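Bench notes, bay 3.
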Amino acid sequence: MLTRLATRPATLADQPIYWQSCGPFHADSHLKMPQKPRSTRATAPRLGKALKRSFFDRSVHEVAPDLIGATFLVGGAGGIITEVEAYHHTDPAAHSYRGPTPRNQVMFGPPGFSYVYRSYGIHWCVNFVCEEAGSASAVLIRALEPTHGLAAMRRRRGLEDARALCSGPGKLCEALGITIAHSELPLDRAPIALHARTEAPEIITGVRIGITKAVDLPWRYGLKGSKFLSKRF
């Protein structure tokens, strides 16, 4: 005679052994499970409105300090402008001082274009042309705080330290991939993008660096307290 087997345990005590070994279930058990770690990736700061070429149709001494805190990107890589120098056509240290040449011709054109030149035959340097056509004045971009495209900038520079990526005009051009091919380009079209600062910075001034003429002019502007400068003020 066959004996009929029970199809389910009658009580919790009759439950299979694996249930008892796991312990009773609590409503907050999900809180004790391993949680997915939060991302530690830094968030890029909010970008201000896009700057147009008309922004540069002013005195170079107005544009230069207004660029501190703005964001400069080339192909999506770049950061916050922390240091610049102004060069006026009446300034003996300006490339345009002795008139137009094939190299500096863009400085004599309309404002809002890039002027890229080779420094000491080694490093590229990027400038933003200012003032009306014929004035031949420009702002040299000396340093950035990297905020966008850090992986690409680190690869180009061959180093990890963010503070060293763009701490000089030649360094920032290498980090952003700027070459002579980027000269005479409009500053409000791809691959270049410029965004206004989102808050008013505290600006410091000092004499310019690496020149032998008009060395006493306080036409160097920087973001006070920044760790991303080419040289302390």
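Next record in the batch:
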Amino acid sequence: MDLYSYFRSSASFRVRIALALKGLPYDYRGVHLVRNEQLDAPYAAISPQRLVPLLQDGEATLTQSLAIIEYLDETHPEPALLPRDPLGRARVRSLALDIACEIHPLNNLRVLRYLVKELGASEDAKNAWYRHWVESGLEVVERRLADDAATGTFCHGDTPTMADCVLVPQIFNAQRFHCRLDHVPTVMRVFEACMARPAFQAAQPSSCPDAEA
């Protein structure tokens, strides 16, 4: 398998965690988003969205991090990243989407660039925008994790799931932008439990071949 990734891309980070949890080998293909390498013709030819991550598995080409994770879970079932029961699967997907759909799209690189270059937002205004959506979005996740008996060591029970694959990169980004996190103690407890696992450590941005390239 080949994974097209950028070390600071939280969506790519999600897939790297899933691959590490399953112990699946892959070749890392760096796509530097800040240098706009995603717009270059060779990459655009295989990625209509011109985004990362992109996973090539033999003849198959897959995009969108959650779709990739579910594909990996179906083709390599152990360890499972989605629960076996329908209600558990729905809860894990819902938690993942609370971050992947409600927080991340408002704060990815394209949006931040548009705020500055097209709307004339200052650096302070851009960062205030980022912090607002991350802090308020994580508060929703906190309420769900704190109030649900299904929460265990991790987002759902005592083994990592797709929800944890999505949560951890968002916390990395929150820390990078100096977001307030003291209002989400359950979220941070789960984050620390994840980061105690070697798979999460191996997938983090500083471990990527293109880190600070």
